[in-house]
Design a protein that fits this description.
Layout (H helix, E strand, L loop, with lengths): L6 E4 L11 H13 L1 E5 L6 H7 L6 H7 L2 H7 L4 E5 L6 E3 L4 E5 L16 E7 L1
Parallel strand pairs: 3-5
Antiparallel strand pairs: 1-2, 2-6, 4-5, 4-6
C-alpha cells in the first residue's frame, strides 16, 4: 500500500550527457538501463520514501546523474535553475519554482534519505 507520497515516473535519464567525462558517460549509460527517475508529488518526501512507494530502492549514484538543470527541466516546470547546497537535491523548490542542484560534497552531496519541507525531490530508483 503506498504511503502518503505519490510519485510520477519521469524521463530525466534521457537528458543529454554529452558534456560529461567519458567515465561518467559510461556510468550513465549503465544507469539508464537499470534506474528509473521519479518525482515526488508532495514536498518534504525523501527519495527513499518515493522509491519505496513504487516498489524500488533509491540509487544514490543516480542522484548525482540527475543533478543537472536539463534533468530537472525534463521533470519539473522550473522558473530557473540554481546551484545550491543541500542533500535534498536535485529538487524543485516549492513556492518559487526554482530547480535546485547541489554543488556540495560530503554531507551536502545528494542523499536518498534527505528531505526538506519546501522541496519536491527528483529521485533515481532501481
Amino acid at each position: 500500500m503506498p504511503s502518503s507520497a505519490s510519485v510520477i515516473e519521469t524521463s530525466a535519464f534521457r537528458a543529454d550527457i554529452s558534456s560529461r567525462a567519458a567515465a561518467k558517460k559510461a556510468n550513465a549509460m549503465r544507469l539508464q538501463t537499470n534506474i528509473k527517475g521519479f518525482v515526488g508529488t508532495s514536498s518534504g518526501t525523501s527519495c527513499d520514501e518515493i522509491c519505496q512507494d513504487v516498489g524500488l530502492k533509491c540509487n544514490v549514484g543516480g542522484l548525482s546523474m540527475l543533478n543537472t538543470c536539463d534533468a530537472l527541466r525534463e521533470s519539473f516546470s522550473c522558473t530557473e535553475c540554481e546551484d545550491n547546497m543541500g542533500p535534498d537535491q536535485p529538487a524543485l523548490e516549492v513556492g518559487t519554482g526554482k530547480c535546485l542542484m547541489t554543488v556540495g560534497s560530503g554531507e551536502m552531496a545528494p542523499a536518498c534519505e534527505a528531505k526538506h519541507p519546501n522541496t519536491k525531490r527528483l529521485c533515481s530508483c532501481e
